[in-house]
Amino acid sequence: MIAYGQPAHDGKHGNFRYNLAMSPSTQHLPQNEAVRLALETDLTIDIVTIGARTGQPRRTEIWFWNIDGRIIICGTPSAGGDQGPRARRDWLANLRANPEFLFCLKESIRAELPARAVIITDPADRWAIMSDPQTRWYRQQGFSLEELVAGSPMVEVFFLSAER
Q1: Mean pLDDT, to the nearest integer, of 18-29?
Q2: Architecture of the structural domain at 9-17+25-161
Q3: DSSP conformational letter for 69
Q4: Residue ranges of the alpha helices (H) in 32-152?
Q5: What are phi and psi of 141, to 5 degrees?
Q6: Whole-model pTM above 0.85?
Q7: Local confidence band at 30 (pLDDT 50, 70, 90 cut-offs)
């Protein structure tokens, strides 16, 4: 397994951090070729977040998208991927409270990448992401583009560098 850093967690609410700095790279992508390839081809990952209420690590399987070099995690407005009511997402609440997390590749390679999530709120940016060909699956679930833009949980991932 490729390890880019180990999380430091002192067991207290909200104190999950990496002794790492943000990557100065304009693409914010790891330099390892196997990781770069996985970020271009894989779909399913685990994210390890810190619980917003409990302060404990939480592992969630989720999809990600590489849209023009930007790593995006998003979902449907309803948690079940159906037309049900909009549901709160634990993973999003966790990232809102504690934006640093582990991005765990598990398809073509196994790697745990320290990262920071930034919630995407700009309507034009959300529209561009949800209208991209890669996010077609979401539009095929019966949601209009307007519903996806307004209600989908969506974050951009910035990888942290091991250099400090």
Answers
A1: 38
A2: Roll (2.30)
A3: T
A4: 33-41, 90-97, 123-131, 136-139, 145-151
A5: -90, 10
A6: no
A7: low
